[in-house]
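Handout, section 4.2: multi-component inputs.
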Amino acid sequence: MITVECRNVWKSFYGKSVLRGVNLTIRPGETIVIIGQSGTGKSVLLKHIVGLLAPDRGSVLVDGVDVGRLSNKKLFELRVRFGMVFQSAALFDSFTVDGNVGFGLREHTDMSDEEIARICAEKLHMVGLDDVGSKAPSELSGGMKKRVGFARAIAMNPECVLYDEPTTGLDPIMSDVINNLIVKLSSELKITSVVVTHDLASAYKVGDRIAMLHDGVVIFEGTPDEVRNTNHPIVRQFIEGRAEGPIVVGSRE
Amino acid sequence: MLTPQNAFRAVGRPIINFLRDAGGSTLMLLGIFKRLKELPRTSRQTFLQMEAIGLGSMPLVFITAIFVGAVASVQAAYQFQDYVPMVFLGSVVGKSVILELGPVLSALVVGGRVSASIAAELGTMKVTEQIDAMEILAIDPQRYLVMPRVVACFIMLPVLTIFADVLAILGGMFVANVSIGVKPNTFIEGLRMFFSVDDVISGILKAATFGAIIGLMGCYNGFRTYGGAQGVGKSTMHAVVTSCICILIADYFLSSVLFRVIFYKGVA
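Output:
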């Protein structure tokens, strides 16, 4: 299981600061949910964990190793331990569903085609999809694409799965199916999970801990109950979904 | 309003962009060299790209070549009239096609088609996070996506150019016979008179370089895409423009090196 430590992480794009000194520790085996308004840098933080982005200042440590200082080779070795579910599913549209799920296995292992097909079917079954292996991603609904993304993320048995807005754009029932899936995968596979979302129902359901990102810093960390009962004005405004309060929409640079 | 600051910005921005693109594409090229030992791992992707780039471009290149040869023949005959014997028609068409028209025009038409298609495909993958997904799966996109495309272009452009040279000469010979009245035997005699293997080699070397440029520009612009459909459109346009410009600039430098240094035989 993986420990992730973000130490004073700063990141800006084209002169606009997105992360302004994020400090966050993700403990092994826990499911942490990062909430916050759109555009506060939740997905940017997620991409720092796997080295898709490098911090301008500060560091991200995975099991004590600074991700930003790793060579390309070491970074790819580290990424084998991670899986990621993208907001848009990010399925490879030139492959079938099986091609997507088995892509990592084909590239990194010497498994036979039959063995890879068996693992693909098993992972797809885990996410509630059967008999879709030969379909193209374009033939699937939004929820099915997300679930194929889940299957692809867990195909290599990762130690940590990152979820980027897993329920965004889905109907409430499909959102709950996805939430159940996150809980099931975390408990069955005993993996560390990091979920980025602004869907509070999802955050309360899947999270062991919730951290709120606001104006580029983590302003609150606690259990779902602590979040529900907090008097922190910014967190309260966010969880109650009020337009009035300390968060002024459009105030961020 | 034109202020000194705005003026500096207007001049400085394109220079910075040019330097960034020159540096970025050079780094990408160096990255390909570094990964060449892994080419066998991506042989399947490379063959697929060779098929898409080579076979897919054949109709376009063939039609272009036949008409380029035909035009070269008509133009040369027009210049020759009353001054130069028509036996030299084959020499002029052959030389101009093998040295310049075949490699450059094939590269320009293939560049338009292939660099645009590579940039659009990789650009769409970039904005839909498919390239990020590949990186998360610990698969190097430069090895899996860039190297096969650049290598395929590098190999297929010379092949297309050889076909284009042959078809352009045949096109020129056909027009010479039908509309100018130069018999095929006379045309071929002229062709053989000044034929040199060095010319063919230099044409192939040029074509290979142009191929690498087309693949590299397509991949570089595709990887730099951001901002959705509009971004993909911009990258596609940039890929075509930069590959065409780079082909013409490289043509000058290659011609200088090949004909003034490597194959230079001195003044008789």
